[in-house]
Specification:
The structure is a single chain. This protein is of the alpha/beta class. The chain has 5 domains: about 80 residues, Orthogonal Bundle (Death Domain, Fas); about 220 residues, Rossmann fold; about 60 residues; about 180 residues, no CATH class; about 90 residues, no CATH class. The chain is built from 32 helices and 13 strands. The strands form 4 sheets. The chain has a 6-stranded mixed sheet, with helices on one face. The protein has a 3-stranded antiparallel sheet with strand order 9-11-10. The protein has a two-stranded antiparallel ribbon with strand order 4-6. Strand 10 and strand 11 form a beta hairpin. Helix 1 packs across helix 4 and helix 27 crosses helix 30. The termini are far apart.
Length: about 675
């Protein structure tokens, strides 16, 4: 179907030279109350340039103006031809909106569809969104742990469909920022908002919704556009309708994934831009949109992981919300929805509750999905064996399951065949290298050049994403260019740890050393590479991190040192042999760090590491004191204080009111128990 611009161009082509000049003269005057186009723009303009000037000046009124001018110059046949197409602004807007809604609905449903093609409205589970924010100077898993320990408190919650609505004591916000850790559901939230609008269920006062994920804007970051051209590039429906102004009706721009932005957003030095038709770089357009200088009436919704939120100055945001993921009751709802067999659902819920690490991680919807996939499979095949209790076990099972699926589905192998074929090993090793190198750079999404830098061929990457679909994704349904990513940050952290472990076992290279090197001595004279040095490097780096960004990576790396876990990866990993001796040395090293570390808060991840190594001796010692009633806090060592804090925070008991006097009323005790007090609403 021809666009309005093409229809107008063909109409002007039918005018002779003199008629065309007369037509342009009329356009310089006021027509139907619309200001004329300056003579300087039209004097030497050809037909295509005239069409462009008309749409910029009259926008959706262009056809109406054209018919009026053609009447003035007695071109009645052309007027009659134009009368067959919609010319009233309301008609054109309705048609354009309908086309946009239809296309957005189709794209989102294509992305969201699950294995059994259930639509989003059936699989969507309400997630917890609160007004306001929490601090973001910690690894996201620490933030999840903190949130999971807080008792239910009266917080102001908000539903995604109400984000741009006024509430008592607050005007309707124009610019909203939503924070949330990786995998918590921000993108699905924006898709649900868009789908509800497209299906006519919510926010029907909005004329147009324009979802523009940062991962897609990154692809065009070298190009120059005006705001109008940028919208036309991504939403051709508006171009086809000839809409060149967006200040006459309500529009929402959704910028999902600020943390994935590779545009230089400089709010201090970027020039001010107010003209929606002026071409410039994409970063200048975005900066001025967010500042409110460009199209100040537009509503903006920006989603981001917490650490990247400070890229936007606070004065540019009217309201901040935070996605908290699943509450404890919502976790149960998720598993009961996921499994039709309620007995199986109950078994899985009970098992997850027995592992503090797993229960905490289930605040993240993506982790619930990983756990459900693994536990469903393991329950069918374990033959009375134990279910995975640690994070490392869970992620190893997840990787093994994906490898088995690949072998059966793509390679025609049987369930009983070895799941680590040469192709699977190659894929896993390549993805591990990519995961580690991009994790070091802080990247969660990857473009063609990122893959090439890691030695992955683009065609190979497409194969990997098609085969390991639940691990590595290629996204091109909603976006015009291909983007790759792991399904969740934790999957990337696990594969990065696996890569570091494999590299050391296979070549003796410690990738965590300041300058990864192997000995220059001839092989016969070299000492056997020391695994303990690798683990010590990892512990040291994790403790040096100001925000704990290596916490989860460290848990995975240490978990991979256990022979029981290495057996699960038999065929991919060489078993290290003297694992128990090295592990004991690592355990002692971690305990030494706990003793030296004055902050119980910073030691909490080290206790999680001890759990991954199956060592609970410090906890058990304090637990015995607590059980016998003989705990004397006056004589506790720093390590024992840290163990007490860890036990209290991991107990699963409601910390609504914490009785400090039960332990000690001293200032020293107050400082040591600060993490517990912070997690409580009230301390006695």
């Amino acid at each position: 179907m021809a666009t309005l611009k093409k229809i107008l161009f063909r109409t002007l082509e039918q005018l002779g030279k003199d008629d065309f000049e007369e037509f342009k003269w009329h356009l310089q005057q006021e027509v139907l109350g619309y200001e004329g186009i300056p003579k300087s723009r039209l004097e030497d303009a050809c037909r295509t340039q005239t069409v462009d000037h008309m749409f910029l000046n009259y926008c959706i009124n262009t056809i109406k103006v054209t018919r009026n001018v053609l009447k003035e110059i007695n071109q009645n046949l052309l007027v009659e031809k134009l009368s067959k197409i919609p010319s009233e602004p309301t008609e054109l807007l309705t048609q354009c909106q309908g086309n946009l809604k239809f296309n957005l609905k189709k794209k989102i449903e294509k992305i969201i569809k699950t294995g059994n093609s259930r639509p989003l409205k059936e699989i969507y589970t309400e997630i917890y969104i609160t007004m306001g924010e929490t601090t973001a100077e910690e690894h996201e898993i620490r933030q999840i742990e903190t949130a999971s320990r807080k008792p239910d408190r009266p917080e102001t919650t908000i539903r995604q469909e109400d984000l741009f609505k006024a509430s008592p004591g607050r005007d309707a916000p124009l610019r909203v920022m939503t924070k949330g850790v990786a995998g918590i559901g921000k993108t699905v939230l924006t898709q649900k908002f868009t789908l509800d609008w497209a299906e006519g269920k919510a926010n029907q006062d909005i004329q147009f919704t324009f979802p523009l994920p940062f991962r897609e804007l990154n692809v065009v970051r070298e190009n120059k556009y005006s705001l109008v051209e940028l919208v036309h590039h991504f939403f051709s429906e508006t171009r086809d309708a000839g809409i060149c102004r967006f200040d006459q009706f309500p529009v929402v721009f959704i910028f999902d994934g600020l943390d994935e932005c590779r545009l230089p957003l400089d709010f201090l030095n970027t020039e001010i831009l107010t003209d929606v038709t002026e071409s410039t770089s994409v970063d200048v357009l975005l900066t001025n949109l967010i500042r409110g200088k460009l199209l100040p009436s537009a509503r903006l919704w920006i989603t981001t992981r917490p650490a990247a939120a400070n890229q936007i100055p606070p004065e540019c945001v009217d309201m901040v919300t935070e996605v908290r993921g699943f509450t404890d009751p919502q976790k149960e709802v998720y598993f009961r929805k996921r499994f039709r067999d309620q007995e199986q659902a109950g078994t899985i819920i009970s098992h997850i509750k027995t592992s503090r690490s797993l229960h905490i991680m289930c605040h993240i919807p993506v982790f619930c999905w990983i756990s459900a996939s693994v536990l469903e499979k393991v329950l069918k095949t374990r033959e009375g064996g134990e279910l995975p209790k640690t994070l490392t076990e869970m992620y190893i099972h997840f990787l093994v399951i994906q490898s088995k699926v690949k072998n059966i589905k793509y390679d025609g192998k049987r369930e009983t065949d070895s799941h680590w074929s040469p192709e699977s090993r190659k894929m896993t090793e390549a993805l591990g290298k990519l995961a580690f190198e991009q994790l070091q750079k802080g990247n969660l999404i990857f473009y063609d050049h990122d893959l090439t830098e890691c030695g992955i061929d683009i065609t190979e990457a497409s194969v990997y994403s098609g085969v390991f679909t639940q691990v590595f994704r290629e996204e091109s349904e909603l976006y015009k260019d291909t983007v790759f990513c792991f399904v969740h940050l934790s999957v990337q952290e696990f594969l990065a740890a696996l890569h570091v472990h494999l590299t050391f076992i296979n070549s003796g290279v410690n990738l965590l050393a300041e300058e990864p090197t192997t000995s220059r001595l001839p092989k016969v004279f070299r000492d056997k590479p020391q695994l303990k040095h690798l683990y010590r490097s990892a512990v040291h780096q994790a403790l040096q991190s100001p925000n704990g960004h290596l916490d989860l990576f460290l848990r995975f790396l240490l978990g991979l040192s256990l022979q029981t876990n290495q057996k699960l990866l038999h065929g991919l990993l060489k078993e290290t042999g003297s694992s128990s001796e090295i592990n004991q040395k690592t355990v002692e090293y971690i305990k030494k760090k706990i003793r030296k570390n004055p902050s119980p808060e910073r030691s909490i991840n080290l206790f999680h590491c001890l759990n991954e190594l199956n060592d609970r001796s410090l906890e058990e010692q304090i637990q015995r004191y607590l059980s016998s009633g003989s705990l004397s806090t006056d004589n506790l060592s720093p390590a024992q204080w840290s163990a007490l804090v860890f036990i209290l925070l991991s107990s699963g008991e409601d910390l609504d009111v914490f009785d400090l006097k039960k332990y000690s009323a001293s200032e020293k005790a107050l400082l040591r128990l600060l993490p517990v007090i912070k997690a409580s609403r009230k301390a006695l």
